[in-house]
Amino acid sequence: MARVQKLKVYRTVAGFYDAYVAAPSQKAALAAWGSDRDLFARGIAEQVTDPALIAEPLASPGTVVKHSRGTTAEQIAALPEQRAPAAPRDADADADPKPTAKPRAKPQAKPKPRPKRDELDAAEEALTSLRADFNRKKKDLAEREAALAQDRRALEQARSSRMEAAEDALRGQKQAYEEAVRRWRASQD
After folding, report:
1. Closest alpha carbon to 19 in 45, 37, 40, 43
2. What global pTM score does this model have?
3. d(CA 58, CA 8)
């Protein structure tokens, strides 16, 4: 008989997401994430036991399930401010006290804003929601199938015992009828 391994749920950071996976070991979790480094030893990955967080990964063992670490606005707000790089110092400028004329710099065009991820995030969340809904419905069907199979076994057992009793009753009634007919014929002679 094959040995069934108990699954544990592990989590690591994947960009703006937490990536969860239900696996029998840390090594299997690393393989599911596609990592060739020990993220657990580096403190980047951990085992999760919170029932609210482990339900979805346990429904699809070995599949990486991503959850956003916050809204897009919260993630953008958490980014560090970007500062303009300092101009390189010219070693000769410190030695020569005379001011030098600097060429007039061209005004830089305002950079285009970074594309918004709102639609991508919404699509990822929709897919995650659909997967969870599918897995929940699949589990419900499996439970209903198991209950129906149990009902079928009980019905077949009840049928078997009732049929046996009915067949015994029929045989008894048939014998009694045949005996009554035999006595009736004997009385007719």
Report:
1. 45
2. 0.40
3. 8
